[in-house]
Specification:
The chain is of the alpha/beta class. It is 35% helix and 11% strand. Helix 3 (67-74) crosses helix 15, helix 6 (141-150) packs across helix 7 (156-169) and helix 14 runs antiparallel to helix 15.
Length: 536
């Protein structure tokens, strides 16, 4: 009855039937199938990309509107590319040794699975270059480059060839294949505004036991299922980390377990930016009072660390070449997948210059900035940031104080600079063969500065890095750009799709969002009851 009424309403209103959903579904088994089932229904009813219809998802205030400029500054992509990024789920599951306690056999959830232990699939993904994992190798990547040069490599290409050969021969190994070997331990854990040790890391007791080596309440049994692709070591290591640092203004669980706690300023003691998925405005944090006692603004703490780090690292490291395994990324040809091994690249690091690069905006954004596969030149915006913030002797805009960083983020982003928005739509137009620049034409003169936000929050501008279209008269709705302007969807086919054509997805019978019973027992709920609850 409800389903028919929902569908009839979509028909009569041309798609204005909406499902509002939170993250609770994610806490149940087969959550991916449940999500996809709902999305499939919404697709079939023509509700996607329609104001008042579609999929409204809420998991907290976690939408970074100026994603394009923020991501370049946050991950130092204004100076060095590519960045080192790690998916936390894999890192936590493996380095906290939770894989050693796994009791769910893949035989129970898949048809003739290739592996019984789920961690083996993660290992294969890393070896194929689909996922990242740090540390990368069982040897230091800086030393590995030097070894390649000593062996006769005369170029970066020859170094990459050398690394591939050493991996093939087994002379070096990926760290994910032997994570409990001491040379593959993570040694430093730096937490910034994240309570990793209590909640976000998942598996609190395992983190305490194996990463921190402290009192814990782990009661599960090890070795119920043994992985094939990971070297199993006995006994399991306890206390892998040498240094734990927390930067926070709360005395969180993570701070309580840390060796060093760096006291951060609170909201009214610093300058910062705030955006959310609940509304289309960008807000400022304005410093009402100076940080008390030893507390400092987050940016000031990182700048101070960068200064001291540069002094020490310059003495011991200087300028070196680093080897990075770059995983397959969304919105790149890498999405097509491969089994040819990881994509290895070489980057140069100047450890003497870390502090200088921390407090200045690097020149790489002049040639390329963007997000989600859309890139454009920010040469003019880069020069304007220099005029606003001042420059160093080389013409690099300054990022010494937090308000300068906020100004740079605003001026470079297509969400807060109309000309950058126009460039972004033009770049997407050239990529898809459809003129989209008219969408940004009436906002080209708009530039939002940090001082403007101090007077009042401002509505963000339209930009193709977000798929919605919004204005004073129209609220944001995702995928309007795809539906109304026929921009291809961010999928391999360029269309909305229901079927997932991947051998592992097929192996687990999840290529289509179909009903599934649970395949394991719960201590308080029967499988039948739990499955009914999950799939309702």
């Amino acid at each position: 009855m409800v389903a028919r009424e929902f569908a009839k309403n979509a028909e009569l209103t041309r798609g204005r039937s909406m499902v509002i959903i939170g993250s609770g579904v994610n806490h149940w088994y087969h959550s991916d199938l449940i999500y996809r089932a709902i999305i499939t229904m919404l697709m079939l009813l023509g509700t996607i990309g329609v104001n008042g219809g579609g999929w409204a998802h809420y998991v907290g205030q976690e939408k970074i509107r100026p994603l394009d400029s923020w991501s370049h500054i946050a991950f130092a992509q204004d100076w060095i590319r590519p960045p080192r990024l790690q998916n936390t789920t894999s890192w936590s599951y493996i380095h906290s040794d939770q894989y050693r306690y796994e009791d769910l056999s893949m035989v129970k959830v898949a048809v003739n699975p290739e592996y019984e232990h789920p961690v083996d699939y993660n290992v294969v993904a890393v070896k194929n270059g689909w996922l990242p994992f740090y540390p990368q190798f069982n040897v230091n990547p800086l030393r590995l480059y030097e070894d390649a040069v000593k062996a006769g490599a005369k170029s970066d290409e020859e170094v990459i060839k050398y690394v591939r050969e050493q991996l093939a021969k087994g002379n070096i190994r990926l760290a994910v294949e032997d994570p409990d070997a001491p040379e593959n331990f993570p040694r430093v854990l730096f937490m910034w505004r994240a309570n990793f040790l209590a909640s976000s890391g998942k598996g609190h007791e395992y983190v305490l036991k194996h990463l921190l080596g402290t009192d814990n309440s782990v009661m599960a049994k090890e070795g119920l299922i043994r992985p094939k692709l990971i070297n199993w070591r006995e006994p399991a290591p306890m206390g892998k980390l040498d240094l734990v640092v927390t930067l926070d203004f709360r005395m969180s669980t993570s701070a309580l377990y840390s060796d060093i706690v760096l006291p951060a300023a609170t909201w009214y003691e610093k300058n910062d930016l705030s955006t959310t998925d609940l509304h289309p405005f960008i807000h400022p944090f304005n410093q009402a009072i100076p940080p008390p006692w030893e507390a400092k603004a987050d940016w000031d703490i990182f700048v101070a660390l960068a200064r001291r780090f540069s002094e020490m690292a310059c003495k011991y490291l200087g300028r070196v070449k680093d080897i990075i395994i770059v995983p397959l990324l969304h919105d790149t040809p890498g999405e097509l997948g491969n089994r040819s091994g990881p994509n290895i690249v070489i980057v140069e690091r100047d450890y003497c210059d870390v502090y200088h690069r921390m407090i200045t905006l690097g020149p790489l954004v002049k040639d390329s900035i963007g997000a989600k596969g859309i890139t454009w030149s920010a040469k003019e915006e880069y020069e304007e940031v220099g005029k606003l913030n001042g420059t160093d002797e080389h013409g690099h805009p300054l990022l010494i104080k937090d308000h300068q960083v906020a100004e740079a983020i605003l001026h470079l982003s297509s969400t807060t600079n109309g000309e950058a928005s126009y460039k972004a739509y033009k770049a997407l137009s050239e990529r898809v063969g459809i003129d989209l620049t008219h969408i940004a034409e009436d906002q080209r003169e708009v530039v939002i500065h940090f001082n403007d936000l101090s007077y009042q929050p401002r509505r963000v501008l339209r930009t193709p890095i977000w798929s919605g279209k919004e204005s004073e008269e129209r609220p944001y709705t995702p995928y309007a750009l795809n539906v109304e302007d026929l921009v291809p969807w961010r999928t391999l086919t360029g269309r909305q799709h229901v079927y997932l054509d991947h051998e592992w997805i097929i192996e687990f019978g999840e290529q289509l969002p179909t009903y599934k019973l649970l395949s394991f027992k719960h201590p308080s709920i029967t499988v039948k009851d739990r499955a009914s609850t999950v799939n309702t």
